[in-house]
Specification:
Layout (H helix, E strand, L loop, with lengths): L5 E5 L7 H14 L3 E4 L4 H4 L9 H12 L3 E5 L7 H4 L28 H18 L5 E5 L14 H15 L2 H8 L26 H27 L6 E2 L1 E2 L7 H6 L5 E3 L7 H11 L8 E5 L19 H12 L1 E6 L27 H19 L2 E2 L4 E5 L1 H9 L7 H14 L4 E5 L9 E4 L7 H12 L3 E4 L21 H5 L1 E8 L6 E4 L2 E6 L1 E7 L3 E7 L7 E8 L2 E6 L2 E2 L1 H18 L12 E7 L4 E7 L5 E4 L4 E2 L6 E2 L2 E4 L5
Parallel strand pairs: 1-2, 1-9, 2-3, 3-4, 4-5, 6-7, 7-8, 8-9, 11-12, 11-13, 13-14, 14-21
Antiparallel strand pairs: 10-23, 15-18, 16-17, 16-19, 17-22, 19-20, 20-21, 23-24, 25-28, 26-27
Helix pairs in contact: 5-8, 8-13, 10-11, 11-12, 14-17
Protein name: Beta-galactosidase
Catalytic activity: Hydrolysis of terminal non-reducing beta-D-galactose residues in beta-D-galactosides
EC number: 3.2.1.23
Length: about 650
């Protein structure tokens, strides 16, 4: 990719007439759009009849864009197989958890594991890569569109067979599977792998191991499909390959991006959910370290479909989103979509232009983003995002465990975003790191909501602690095995001995009347909790009332030069938020975290490092203005004036 910041939009030229295309390109240039994403739903335009593939239109479009100074991200169109693939072939289609077979239409209606789908997807992708892979102006590839956004685990016959083969490869013998899953419960015992069902309709609940392992199987298979597609493209093109994913989809993003070239995501968070926007930036920055990520989709104003809509962004907010994204490590900030759809199920969705070619309510914000891109470009290109000293571990495998065992309908993304918000509110710069990420350089590590914690992860965390870092474990961490069963040696497995505790009880704390005290704050305790008896640790959080007032809910223990902190429960309500933020601040102080500031609520800072200098990009995200103390002499890059103490970010300003 070129040495520039990208400002882009999804464009569907196959849907429009020649005069519209001419006008679109003209107005893209006027709006500062320098990259277009095309092709993702165009399989029927490329191959209207099976075996008759013609890509000349898309070749001409890419050449035309390039002539006008606009680069292209080309997509594979495999999210929308044509009617010739679907009609009369229910065996090729996705089957949901209620065993309903999807028909043609919408998208993601095919089973991506079906061998005929894989064959035809490979054929069309190879044709696209051969025709387009070496064209000037092609700067990247996007595989498919939003894997598992509308569907999750397929229950078709093809998937059943592949699932049983996957189990045999994993367990080797059915006896090992039975032992691992505890299948004597409710007479679930299997004599052959071909007897193991999918977690489809059942009178009550499926065995936890069956359901969690099926999710893992599904995540592995969609990643496998992505790797197959990427390998085909790489035979004909040197442009990097990505996929537009999300924390919300039924994928393992860490596994998915492992063999792709850069990470990208889609987000439609509103101003009510600023942390939900920011956490994506701090996470996707770390899926491919050293490589900038892309925001492949966001709305210029609002998201909508035929059945719903979100509130539009206030004036100035899109600019703040873009500034924060570029500063936090994004190479591109792109919209869905350029011209409003005239048909289909997303006709009302926000766009840059209306279906009749006039600027929409979001258009002035797009012009502001382009101004911001130009203002920031030199600074961003001459620096890199600074590695944080504080890390929050994220795991899509944990998401699968909590989908199987949601307690009172807990939502993994919601839990993680809420915990992230607490870190954000303390003014600490943070990384959100995948479960398998290297941990070197972190002084403070948080590992909440990770029901199964691998021995390999524990080893890396302990190595970090021995060097002097603080590791905060929990809540809801460590209480399950890899197969989603209960430990039989201790409640939290090997964590207990390392942390110097015994988890005497694990139980739901909500409504029990338990008040937790710690760090000068008190709050009701909630969620499924662990309470501790000390076996070498020190009690930091004590309890009052409830069922276990004599036990601890926060403990700490020295280990090497550092410390392990066990967080057994989650304080609730506004008092709980203050308590957790006090905990974060306390241990950040103790760990000597310096990459932090006293930013006021609603304002963030994004530190970046250059050759012998540092840059802080300060962005107000809530429209109320904000301030931050700069601890050393600095120069404002916009005004070129010295700023030695306190910097104020005005409303929706950077």
């Amino acid at each position: 990719m070129g040495k520039k910041l990208y400002h882009g939009a999804a464009w569907y030229p196959e849907l429009w007439s020649e005069n519209v295309l001419e006008e679109d390109i003209k107005q893209m240039k006027e709006a500062g759009i320098n990259v277009a994403r095309i092709g993702e739903f165009a399989w029927s335009s490329m191959e209207p009849h099976e075996g008759r593939i013609d890509l000349s239109f898309f070749v001409q479009i890419i050449e035309r864009l390039y002539e006008n100074g606009i680069d292209t991200v080309m997509c594979t169109p495999t999210a929308t197989p044509p009617i010739w693939f679907s009609h009369g072939h229910p065996e090729r289609m996705y089957v949901d958890a209620e065993l309903r077979t999807m028909g043609h239409g919408s998208r993601q209606h095919a089973c991506t594991n079906h061998p005929y789908f894989r064959e035809k997807a490979a054929v069309v992708t190879e044709h696209i890569a051969r025709a387009i892979g070496s064209l000037p102006g092609l700067i990247g590839w996007q595989l498919d569109n939003e894997f598992k956004a509308h569907v999750s685990e397929c229950m078709c016959r093809t998937c059943l067979t592949q699932w049983q083969q996957w189990l045999e490869q994993r367990y080797t013998t059915v006896e090992r599977l039975n032992e691992a899953w505890g299948t004597q419960i409710w007479s679930e015992y299997y004599h052959r792998f071909d007897q193991v069902p999918q977690p489809g309709p059942a009178p009550f609940l499926h065995n936890s191991s069956l359901k969690t392992m099926y999710q893992q199987f599904s995540m592995e298979k969609i990643a496998e499909f992505a790797y197959e597609q990427a390998a085909i493209i790489r035979r004909y093109s040197s442009a990097p390959v990505t996929h537009n994913s999300s924390m919300a989809f039924s994928v393992d993003n860490e596994r998915l991006f492992r063999s792709l070239d850069f990470a990208s995501f889609d987000t439609y968070a509103t101003t009510d959910h600023v942390p939900a926007f920011l956490i994506n930036n701090d996470l996707f920055r770390n899926f491919k370290r050293g490589r900038d990520y892309w925001i492949m989709e966001t709305s210029p104003s609002f998201a909508a479909s035929l059945t719903s809509y979100a509130k539009p962004h206030p004036s100035g907010y899109l600019r703040a989103e873009a500034a924060a994204s570029y500063a936090l490590g994004a190479e591109a900030f792109c919209y869905w979509l350029w011209r409003q759809q005239r048909a289909g199920c997303e006709q009302p969705h926000g766009s840059v232009l209306s279906a009749w070619g006039k600027p929409t309510v979001g258009y002035p914000s797009v012009l502001e983003v382009e101004q911001t891109r130009q203002e920031l470009e030199n600074v961003i290109l001459s620096t890199r995002p600074a590695q944080a000293e504080t890390a929050l571990t994220y795991s899509d495998r944990a998401k699968a465990f909590l989908k199987t065992e949601p307690h009172r309908k807990v939502n993994h993304r919601g839990l993680m975003t809420d915990f992230y918000t607490r870190i954000l509110n303390t003014g600490i710069h943070r990384d959100v790191v995948p479960e398998g990420s290297e941990l070197d350089g972190y002084k403070l590590l948080f590992t909440p909501f990770l029901p199964y914690i691998t021995a390999e992860y524990i080893d890396r965390a302990i190595e970090l602690v021995e060097k002097g870092s603080i590791w905060i474990v929990g809540p809801l961490t460590g209480g399950r095995t890899e197969e989603h069963t209960i430990h039989t040696d201790s409640a939290l497995g090997s964590l207990e001995q390392l942390a110097g505790v015994e988890a005497v009880y694990t139980f739901p704390m909500d409504g029990s009347g338990t008040i937790g005290h710690a760090f000068g704050h008190s709050a009701p305790l909630s969620l499924w909790s662990s309470v501790f008896m000390l076996e070498g640790a020190t009690a930091v959080g004590t309890m009052e009332g409830g069922l276990t007032p004599e036990l601890a809910w926060i403990t700490e223990k020295r280990h090497g030069k550092g410390k392990i902190v066990m967080l057994g429960s989650m304080p609730a309500g506004e008092d709980g938020q203050r308590l957790i933020e006090a905990l974060i601040t306390h241990y950040a102080d103790e760990a000597r975290v310096t990459l932090r500031s006293d930013v006021t609520p609603g304002t963030i800072f994004a530190p970046r490092s250059g050759d012998g200098f540092e840059v802080w990009v300060i962005v107000n995200m809530d429209g109320n203005g904000g301030s931050v103390t700069i601890t050393q002499a600095a120069v404002d890059q916009f005004t070129k004036e010295p700023d030695r103490c306190r910097h104020t970010a005005g409303t929706w300003q950077i």
